[in-house]
Amino acid sequence: MPPPPPHALPVTACAVASDCGVGSRSLLDALRDGRTRLRPPRLFEAGFPAFTGEVDAALLPPLPGHLARFDTRNARLALAALDDADDGLRAAVLRARERYGADRVGVILGTSTSGIYETENAYRSLAETGRLPPRYDFVHQHAWVATARYLQAELGLQGPCYAVSTACSSSSKSLISAQRLIQAGVCDAVLAGGVDSLCRMTLHGFKSLDLVSETPCTPLDRHRSGISLGEGAGLLLLERPQPEHAGCVHLLGAGESSDAHHMTAPHPEGRGAALAMQRALRQAGLAAADIDYVNLHATGTTKNDASEMAAMQAVFGAGTPCSGTKGLTGHTLGAAGGIEAVIAWLSLREGLLPGTCGLRETDPAFDATVLRDTRSGVAPRRIMSNNFGFGGNNTTLLFGWAQ
Amino acid sequence: MVAVLGRGLCLPQAGAEAERFGDCSLDASLLPPLTRRRTSLATRMAVSAADRACRDAGGGRDMPAVFVSAIGEMQVTDRLCQAIAGGAFPLSPTLFHNSVHNTAAGYWSIAVDTRQPMQAMAALADGFALGLTEAACQVAAGAQQVLLVCYDEAMPDHLLPDYTWQPCALALVLGAPGDDRPRLAMPYRDTAADARAPAFAVHNPAVQGLALLEQIQDGPPGRHRVQLGPGNPAWFTELVLP
């Protein structure tokens, strides 16, 4: 068996929570049935028509008593994913801790808004009584590194622990940092990915930018009308390659770039997006023709999708199958890169190419092979996953089999 | 090991004690006037220090950057949370997009017109040590030069009344090691060390980097162990001065 490419790292376990449920099995079921889980918001009143991908509260466990000061919706999303028995992420992290030592296992977690949902609730008390509620704790709940530190404490790890927060590319960036920490020899394993919960600030913030769809979002559709927000966790364990990892899905390479264009609007020709994709291909030593499927960022706004499809045209031409999955999960912002990395992992292992939930008619301006329905019984070998954020912050991850 | 190629500092409220570091004033003239008026002190300090470090390193700015901040745009987020609590909708779209943690990184990349990757991270008091770790990993992965910017302004009082932070931004341009430049080892934690915080550090991770700047500026040739932050175990690096 030939050795994996030099930048490749095995994904030895992963876990997910989203509006589709907790565990990768629930996400796989959703990818197969292609029915949207987006519904009107229940967590709070929006005050305008909107749909969100909300995780059922019954699925979110409270934190153990000795770590209760970290208790937020974000931390509960992470704990729910961590403890899905089928995915077995907790057991895999503890094996890595045993094998390498607690100080050799890092936690690098993406988040856009951390525990802001709790801060919003606390500010209601502040407005009414002039004081924050006694259980509110900024450092352990809202500081950007709070949920990463919670997971570090929950798992007894002592390696580097930080948050990456580059808006919607946060958790892709966390995986890239994890890759570098392992390759530089700072860590032997890193728990990476991302978590974000629904909150009023992002829903009203995107509304203020006129980007929230009044219907469940329809990415890539000619009549697409904006985003539907979601929430969740997508967590992956990356390790230094070991002989028994040869059969794992690998992170084959990654690329990053900046648009240098505008804080919220993407570059109209997708200049930075194309550069991120090309850099990922170069790092993995692959050509565009080697990629079997691209999971697009595809948020469902007019400009974002047009920019990304221009970049796709520049890098791939029209033939490479691609789709967007936010019609199922909603746009989970800082968790999107993690959840979509789990979708890539599932697609490789289960032999499917996801469809575009909500798509009725692909925008005729896109000269591309956009999948509307999920294809099963296929055997993709290499999958690209794109995520782009405010600030013109672009990331591309490549997953596949190492041999 | 990474080489320190340039240094920059912004201490907008510091008195005479900052004079030994040279110009530490707030100068975000790199940002367009409208952006400058609408961005937080945190972002403007970050741009000031970053610009100074790049000029110190020879003037180039087209390089990847790592921005690290404990609380980032919390002053902006505070205003949004007050508006939400008061039902003052719609929110300001400008405040919303200026609330993201990568606001400084985003405006920097636009202002200097670089398509290089921008990282934005947070690690509370470990921020300077872990930002340096992230930047050193980028150099190890092949980046010629990497800009590291560690910055924080003061917290809204009601959120952290005990944190009496001095606003501070500190930037370094790092690169592949050469013999004629100060060199830094990958940061490490020492469980056996005395974990006292360095002088005049009160929580702000950027201020904790001043001990390193002082040593680079005033230390004798040779190898020095420098503490990068408080805590137990505390973070350290080895500094080699030519």
Task: Describe the protein's architecture and organization.
The complex is a heterodimer of chains A (403) and B (242). Chain A has 403 residues and is α/β, with parallel strands linked by helices. Helices cover 33% and strands 20% of the residues of chain A. Chain A has a single domain (11-401), classed as Peroxisomal Thiolase, Chain A, domain 1, CATH 3.40.47. In chain A, strand 15 and strand 16 (393-401) form a beta hairpin. In chain A, helix 7 packs across helix 12. Chain B is an alpha+beta fold. Chain B has a single domain, classed as Thiolase/Chalcone synthase (Peroxisomal Thiolase, Chain A, domain 1). Chain B contains eight helices and nine strands. In chain B, strands 1, 2, 3, 4, 5, 6, 7, 8 and 9 form a nine-stranded mixed beta sheet that branches. In chain B, a hairpin with a 6-residue loop joins strand 8 and strand 9 (234-241). In chain B, helix 2 (41-56) crosses helix 5. Chain B starts with a strand and ends with a strand. The chains are: A alpha/beta (403), B alpha+beta (242).
Describe how the helices and strands are arranged.
The complex is a heterodimer of chains A (about 400) and B (about 240).
Chain A (H helix, E strand, L loop, with lengths): L8 E10 L2 E2 L1 H10 L18 E2 L19 H10 L6 H12 L4 E6 L5 H14 L8 H4 L4 H10 L5 E4 L5 H14 L5 E8 L3 H9 L20 E2 L1 E8 L9 E10 L12 H14 L8 E3 L6 H15 L4 E3 L2 H4 L6 H15 L1 E2 L15 E2 L4 E2 L5 E8 L3 E9 L2
Parallel strand pairs in A: 3-7, 4-5, 4-6, 10-11, 10-15, 11-13
Antiparallel strand pairs in A: 1-2, 1-8, 1-9, 6-8, 9-16, 12-14, 15-16
Helix pairs in contact in A: 2-6, 7-12, 9-10
Chain B lengths: L1 E9 L22 H6 L2 H16 L8 E4 L5 H12 L7 H5 L5 H10 L5 E5 L4 H14 L4 E8 L15 E8 L7 E2 L3 E3 L14 H4 L1 H9 L3 E6 L6 E8 L1
Parallel strand pairs in B: 2-3, 2-4
Antiparallel strand pairs in B: 1-5, 1-6, 4-5, 6-9, 7-9, 8-9
